[in-house]
Design brief:
By secondary structure, the chain is of the alpha+beta class. Helix content is 36%, strand content 19%. A hairpin with a 5-residue loop joins strand 8 (169-175) and strand 9 (181-184). The relative contact order is 0.13. The structure holds D-malate and zinc ion. Zinc ion binds at residues 378-379, 386, 426.
């Protein structure tokens, strides 16, 4: 049974971590006790900010010995409340943000070793400085950190060609729930010594240990890139376009954007403007890399337009315009957040089924819930969209979400499960989707997950109440 931290334990932690690494100041802790979407408000007995791996080990050892829960946190950009403690204030928030060094970059091995608190932007910059690149990107790149990206098996807008974090992590270092350090940074290409324990921590959301560093795979720098904004009629046309491009060009990104999402961005994000003159129900943002990318993309889009697959398209004339196109895509979440509450779903179905799913599931949802409007956008080529449902007029959106949100979510998730899909394609489970994971999850997989959790974290101190059913905090006195 977990316990609140005693004054003696807090005193030990304070003495060990010093003023930069320990605080109980409510104002300093406050921003880190709310998730990015503002859905959860947690409490913590103290905020611990270790600057070295041995400090993380000492924290975990002390907390294991005292049965005190730990909530690891990186950039606090979780979409599912994965890094927010519960409201009891009996756990300790562990920020990895001071553990932020890029330890090494090897151009020969195409590997970069970064600590958990390094942001994705820092990793991008370090890779570029070595003449290479790290091919994972997402809107929160300035705040999302390596530890969080690993722990959520983050996806983003380049999964199509390079995969999720699972494909990009070559090795890991972590502090296990015992406080022991797991050194899996060696990044061996071949290693058949049984279970890949380090890789279990990818996507584990801090429930099996605290990731302290990762060896990340780099790829050659892009000589040139071409970015296009395309207007088309429906998701089926978008998929037809993707199929035409695949195999013909090095497609890095292929993002689907409905007119409704673009309108939210244009309304709420300053300095944005629509790339195309006319009105289109759907858009795709395409990025192709390679020395001939601009010519290739222009040719393929011209043929697609002549064949009636797309309605209109424009190629970014320069890097500034390419960035402006990407801003329209990367700020959809931010624009949605400003626009107000919505029932958000991060779903995947088999790639080929996605266009039909978007159209049919949106129609079914809007029919079932009067006044509801679906905005489905995102990673079409990965079979993953963010299927968000807004209800009623903006003034009533909060009430609608409180009264109807859970039912909407069950409805959408049932449609996803009927397609053999996933209720969490890239955001993880956190606390937001735990009940739905229990309701819809494969019992065999869930049982294995629970058994692994119990075996590696028998005292249940690591991020309780997230990802693994039955781990919420039961605090004794
Ligand atoms: C995205 O693709 O923009 C992110 O996953 C964020 C979101 O779902 O809102
Ligand atoms: Zn996404």
């Amino acid at each position: 049974m977990l316990r609140p931290p005693s004054d003696a334990l807090l005193g030990q932690l304070e003495a060990m971590l010093g003023p930069k690494g320990f605080t109980r100041d409510v104002e300093i802790m406050s921003p880190w006790l709310t998730d990015w979407r503002g859905r959860y408000r947690g409490a913590s007995a103290a905020l611990l900010s270790p600057a070295r791996v041995d400090e993380v080990q000492a924290i975990v050892r002390l907390c294991a010995a005292n049965d005190v829960a730990l909530v690891p946190q990186g950039g606090n950009s979780s979409m599912v409340g994965g890094a927010t403690p519960d409201g009891e204030g009996t756990s300790l928030l562990v920020s990895l943000r001071r553990l932020d060094r890029v330890r090494s970059v090897s151009a020969d091995d195409k590997l970069l070793v970064a600590e958990a608190g390094a942001t994705l932007s820092t990793v991008h910059d370090a890779a570029v400085a070595a003449g290479l690149r790290f091919p994972l990107s997402l809107g929160a790149k300035g705040s999302a950190t390596v530890g969080g990206l690993v722990s959520t098996n983050a996806g983003g807008t380049q999964v199509l060609r390079h995969g999720t974090m699972r494909s990009l992590v070559a090795g890991l270092e972590a502090v296990m729930p015992s406080g022991d350090r797991l050194d899996g940074l060696a990044a061996l290409k071949k290693d058949n010594r049984g279970y890949d324990v380090a890789r279990l921590l990818i996507g584990a959301e801090g429930t099996l240990g605290i990731v302290t560093a990762a060896a990340l795979r780099l790829v050659p720098a892009v000589g040139a890139r071409a970015v296009a904004w395309v207007g088309l009629e429906n998701p089926h046309a978008a998929m037809a376009l993707l199929r035409r491009l695949e195999g013909e060009a090095a497609v890095e990104s292929f993002e689907l954007i409905p007119a409704t999402a673009l309108a939210l961005v244009l309304t709420h994000i300053p300095g944005t403007r629509a790339p195309l003159g006319g009105e289109h129900d759907w858009h795709v943002l395409i990025e192709v890399v390679g020395s001939r990318s601009a010519d290739e993309l222009r040719e393929h889009l011209a043929i697609a337009a002549a064949d009636g697959v797309i309605a209109d398209a424009t190629l970014a004339a320069n890097e500034a315009q390419a960035e402006a196109f990407w801003k329209l895509r990367d700020t959809i979440s931010e624009a949605e957040r400003i626009a107000g509450p919505a029932a958000k779903h991060d779903v995947s179905v088999p790639v080929a089924a996605m266009p039909r799913f978007i159209v049919d599931a949106a129609a079914a949802t809007e029919t079932r819930f009067a006044g509801a409007r679906v905005i489905a956008f995102g990673h079409l080529g990965d079979g993953n969209v963010h299927f968000n449902v807004r209800g009623l007029a903006d003034a009533d959106a909060g009430r609608w979400l409180r009264d109807t949100g859970a039912e909407v979510t069950r409805f959408v998730h049932d449609l996803v499960m009927a397609e053999g899909g996933s209720i969490s394609a890239e955001h993880g489970i956190g606390q937001l989707k735990l009940a739905e994971l229990e309701r819809t999850g494969d019992p065999v997989r869930l049982a294995a997950q629970i058994a692994i959790k119990r075996a590696l974290d028998p005292r249940g101190i690591m991020n309780p109440g997230k990802l693994v059913p039955g781990t919420s905090i039961v605090v004794g006195l």
